[in-house]
Amino acid sequence: MTSVDSGPTVAPIPRGLTAVGAAAANFATALPAAELPSGTMRRVTFGDLDVLVANTSRGIVAIDDRCPHMSAPLSIGALDGCLVDCPLHSGQFDLSTGRETRMPTTGGLDAEGRYHPVWAPEGREPKPDPPGLKAEARRLTRVRRIRYYPVRLRDGIIEVAIPAT
Ligand code: FES
Prior knowledge:
Strand content: 25-35%
Distance between the termini: 50 Å
Oligomer: single chain
Number of helices: 1
Shape: elongated
Strand order of the largest sheet: 5-6-7-8
Bound molecules: FE2/S2 (inorganic) cluster
């Protein structure tokens, strides 16, 4: 049996996670779908808003190109299926749910406000926290839920709904 490539699709936005103002926003051209093969992601900038457009295993999504931990650009991380890895502290996020699937190495609070300790990849020791405010800041930093911008496909072009600023 031969598989038929049905072309790019748009993934549903997880319930309640549409970015503020995006539901009623106008669509703007992001990039041709042909330039975003499955499993790839790109930063697209609209004014002062950097958006990550990712072609996940569930379809195309658009979110802020800012890690929900400490705002590093996810576009230079790694995408595997629906999972995106942050290049800064190894946090991992599921673009099909908007939730973290691995906490950052710095630990801190997850989206529900539960505390997680610092950790290190296998074979490395966790970096000790210097005493004082820096450790406190890490402990109190909460990973947010990802917010999504509506996406549509028109004549092979990916368009994203961008709120007016
Ligand atoms: S900024 Fe992404 S995990 Fe810390």
